[in-house]
């Protein structure tokens, strides 16, 4: 009988997280197999694929130094905030440069994932072209199927004569032409879409459950997140950082109430940051009408909590996505007390050879963080072979630290939106510690 | 005290790079492709030393290596050769040069073997602490505390160069610094038509002891017999600290790839060391 230790590592998903994981595990000497249910890489960034959630105007929210992989910079000729087509081109080059393509099995879907007796994991894999399934044993499993693809749709009583969609199905602004549009939610998608609606629709309404802070993309002549990182790297206490950021907003785009938007009921950073100058611009020109929470649909009208109502032809729920790992028992990634029961959203207390890559909602770019998540995971798996004593110490650390969040001293608003929220600098420092402790030789 | 006691090999926190990313400048990249590429061989990326440019590799080494089946690339760091950033030449730092090399790497089809010479070797050292190349060649690297040794050599041979350097003047490319004594002075004259002044800030960086992290790949340290700037004894100590033994190139000076008579031997010795290292890789 061959040991499961000689088996390859299985990576589920060939998006930005799966590719980073493939690179890290190859580098640390593992053989691997990547399973991708679509026929191409890129996941969320592959515009037009059934599970991609970018739309034609998507640009990154974080500037290049935060979004790029640390060992593979984005080209100098990309703008500070690249378009989604550039991100996909970048991922393709990453894949080609590091020779990852040969490990990827396309149109192959993982339908079940069970721990095997004696170690390793049994994966049930469905070939979508031949519609056959098979079960294979793997050394370890890396879950990288993303957390921004399964739409979260709120339950609104009543019925609407017009159309109701989720932003997952939104592709471009042509659907807004000649309509009165209500956008629900003030995430980065909701804000992008309400700006598009302000440009293309007959009327644009924006329903949010609270007032938010809207940060500009440039502050002091630099991408705003670079100034934000300057504050964080000075290790100032969170309230001082928050005051600085609120002041920066007041001095640049202005306090949201100046543009007629509702007063934020919380301090900056307590909800996931929204970066959008254009929303303030269109709101201050009266092209976006703010509304409060939806109470019910009523024929051709939407009724709000404050009793007001508007005639609306199209409602777009930009209400985010559910964490959905359909092939895995939910006990491995359980949300408890509004955060996942894991160590650093990567390591499971229930298994030594199961890792989650990309299950974070950072206040910064994602790729850099998933790179270091992958390095930490690969080093832990390698240390289990080459430095068992260190791996044991690390296992105890996982048990001790389960559910502790890298929040940089911020208390996030209670909402499912913040289940995976991390403050990236705090998070990277914690990953850095983990990586340093996991000396593999 | 060993400078590499900080046994860290993956540097996560680089706030300076995130807050003040290097400016984009135009880059000169030269490419010499082999007629018959050898299978499974990574490309070579050459990084020149201070005041040189990509041209210094194109003269002899790149065509000769391409004839042996190597796919050769060379870049000019900003402020050097025909790359941009000439006007603000005096303010560029190692981190800007590292940016240039990483940008060039990201354009290549696969991870390259990095070959750095002198100041370029110090750039390569900083690149391979964050980028996992198959292996790296450091020719006459001024790493560790060698900068102080070099300063001592300048003081001994040309005190004016030393004191000029202290006040931020570029150390000139003298024959004695570049080549072994027996080399025809015409080699220096022809090189000098294309050299550029050093970055003043980078010159200070070169002088000070550095604190690079462990490399993510095997290092090949190459030293020359008649190197005035970086004596072989200092290089030997440096290589041992890095956990390796230096490769010795006899009869050559600081810039073996431009020596009219010995460039071929130096290339052969270097490439065979590279091949031996590649064979040992898993």
Net shape of chain B: globular
Q: Roughly what is the average pLDDT of chain A, rounded to an integer?
A: 94
SS-based class of chain A: alpha/beta
Second rung of CATH, namely the architecture of chain B:
3-Layer(aba) Sandwich
Low-confidence sequence ranges of chain B? 1-6
Task: Provide the number of structural domains of chain B.
Answer: 1
CATH class of the largest domain in chain A: Alpha Beta
- Regarding CATH, which class of chain B? Alpha Beta
Classify the oligomer. heterodimer
Total of DSSP H or I helical runs spanning 4+ residues of chain B:
12
Main sheet properties of chain B = 7 strands, mixed
Q: What's the CATH superfamily of chain B, by name?
A: Alpha/Beta hydrolase fold, catalytic domain
Low-confidence stretches of chain A: none
The class by helix and strand makeup of chain B works out as alpha/beta
Q: What percent strand of chain A?
A: 15-25%
- The name CATH uses for the topology of chain B is Rossmann fold
Helix content of chain A: 25-40%
Give me the count of strands of chain B. 7
Rg estimate of chain B, integer Å: 17 Å
* Largest beta-sheet details of chain A: 5 strands, parallel
Distance between the termini of chain B: 32 Å
Tell me what the structure shows.
With 441 residues, chain A is of the alpha/beta class. Chain A has two domains: 4-149 and 321-437, FAD/NAD(P)-binding domain, CATH 3.50.50.60; 153-317, FAD/NAD(P)-binding domain (3-Layer(bba) Sandwich), CATH 3.50.50.60. Helices cover 28% and strands 21% of the residues of chain A. Chain A is built from ten helices and 26 strands. Chain A has helices at residues 16-27, 64-67, 84-97, 188-200, 224-233, 238-251, 277-284, 367-386, 388-401, 424-437, and strands at 9-12, 32-35, 104-105, 108-115, 121-127, 132-138, 140-143, 150-151, 163-166, 180-184, 203-207, 214-215, 218-219, 222-223, 274-275, 288-291, 294-298, 301-304, 309-311, 314-317, 321-322, 335-336, 339-340, 354-356, 361-362, 421-422. In chain A, strand 10, helix 4 (188-200) and strand 11 form a beta-alpha-beta unit. Chain A starts with 8 loop residues before the first strand and ends with a helix. In chain B, helix 6 (146-157) crosses helix 7. Chain B has a single domain (15-280), classed as Alpha/Beta hydrolase fold, catalytic domain (Rossmann fold), CATH 3.40.50.1820. Chain B has a seven-stranded mixed beta sheet with strand order 1-3-2-4-5-6-7, sandwiched between helices. Residues 1-6 of chain B have low confidence and may be disordered. In chain B, helix 11 links the parallel strand 6 and strand 7 (247-249). By secondary structure, chain B is an alpha/beta fold. The interface between A and B is medium-sized, with 33 and 27 residues.
């Amino acid at each position: 009988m061959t040991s499961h230790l000689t088996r390859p590592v299985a990576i589920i998903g060939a998006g930005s997280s799966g590719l980073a994981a493939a690179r890290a595990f190859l580098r640390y000497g593992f053989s691997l197999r990547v399973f991708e249910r679509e026929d191409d890489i890129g996941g969320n960034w592959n515009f037009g694929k059934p599970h991609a959630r970018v739309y034609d105007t998507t640009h990154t929210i974080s500037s290049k130094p935060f979004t790029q992989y640390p060992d593979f910079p984005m080209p100098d000729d990309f703008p500070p905030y690249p378009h989604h087509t550039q991100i996909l081109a970048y991922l393709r080059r990453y894949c080609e440069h590091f020779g990852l393509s040969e490990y990827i099995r396309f149109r192959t879907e993982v339908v079940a994932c069970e721990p095997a007796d004696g170690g390793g994991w049994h994966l049930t894999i469905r070939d979508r072209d031949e519609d056959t399934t098979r079960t294979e044993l793997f050394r370890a499993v890396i879950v990288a199927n993303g957390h921004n693809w399964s739409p979260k749709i709120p339950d609104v009583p009543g019925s609407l004569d017009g159309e109701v969609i989720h932003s997952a199905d939104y592709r471009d602004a042509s659907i807004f032409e000649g309509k009165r549009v209500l956008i629900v939610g003030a995430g980065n998608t909701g804000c992008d879409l309400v700006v598009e609606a302000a440009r293309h629709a007959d009327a644009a309404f924006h329903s949010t459950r609270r007032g938010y802070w809207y940060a500009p993309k440039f502050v002091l002549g630099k991408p705003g997140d670079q100034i934000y990182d300057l504050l964080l790297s000075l290790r100032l206490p969170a309230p001082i950082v928050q005051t600085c950021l609120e002041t920066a907003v007041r001095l640049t785009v202005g306090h949201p109430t100046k543009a007629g938007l509702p007063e934020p009921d919380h301090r900056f950073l307590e909800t996931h940051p929204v970066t959008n100058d254009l929303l303030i611009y269109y709101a201050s020109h009266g092209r976006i009408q703010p509304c409060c929470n939806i109470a019910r649909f009523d024929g051709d009208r939407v009724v709000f909590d404050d009793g007001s109502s508007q005639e609306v032809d199209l409602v777009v729920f930009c209400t985010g996505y559910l964490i959905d790992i359909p092939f895995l028992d939910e006990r491995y990634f359980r949300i408890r007390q509004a955060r996942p029961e894991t160590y650093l959203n990567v390591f499971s207390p229930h298994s030594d050879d199961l890792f989650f890559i990309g299950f974070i909602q950072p206040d910064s770019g994602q790729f850099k963080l998933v790179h270091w998540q992958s390095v930490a995971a690969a080093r832990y798996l390698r240390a289990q072979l080459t430095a068992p004593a260190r791996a044991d110490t690390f296992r105890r650390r996982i048990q001790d630290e389960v559910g502790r969040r890298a929040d940089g001293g911020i208390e996030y608003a209670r909402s499912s939106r913040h289940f995976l929220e991390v403050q990236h600098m705090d998070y990277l420092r914690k990953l850095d510690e983990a990586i340093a402790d996991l000396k593999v030789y | 005290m060993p400078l590499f006691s900080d046994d860290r090999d993956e540097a996560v926190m680089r706030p300076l790079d995130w807050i003040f990313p290097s400016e984009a400048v135009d880059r000169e990249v030269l490419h010499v492709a082999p007629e018959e590429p050898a299978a499974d061989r990574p490309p070579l990326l050459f990084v020149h030393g201070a005041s040189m440019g990509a041209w210094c590799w194109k003269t002899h080494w790149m065509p000769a290596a391409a004839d042996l089946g190597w796919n050769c690339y060379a870049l000019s760091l900003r402020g050097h050769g025909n790359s941009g950033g000439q006007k603000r030449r005096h303010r560029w730092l190692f981190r800007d040069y590292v940016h240039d090399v990483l940008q060039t790497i990201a354009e290549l089809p696969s991870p390259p073997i990095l070959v750095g010479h002198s100041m370029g070797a110090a750039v390569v050292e900083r690149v391979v602490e964050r980028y996992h190349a198959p292996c790296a060649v450091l020719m006459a690297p001024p790493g560790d505390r060698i900068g102080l040794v070099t300063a001592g050599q300048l003081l001994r041979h040309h005190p004016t160069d030393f004191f000029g350097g202290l006040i931020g003047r570029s150390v000139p490319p003298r024959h004695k610094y570049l080549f072994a004594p027996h080399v025809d002075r015409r080699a220096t004259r022809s090189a000098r038509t294309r050299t550029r002044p050093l970055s003043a800030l980078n010159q200070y960086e070169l002088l000070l002891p550095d604190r690079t992290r462990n490399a993510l790949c095997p290092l090949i340290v190459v030293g020359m017999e008649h190197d005035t700037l970086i004596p072989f004894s200092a290089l030997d100590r440096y290589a041992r600290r890095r956990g390796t033994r230096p490769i010795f190139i006899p009869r050559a000076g600081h810039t073996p790839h431009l020596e009219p008579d010995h460039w071929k031997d130096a290339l052969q010795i270097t490439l065979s060391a590279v091949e031996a290292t590649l064979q040992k890789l898993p």
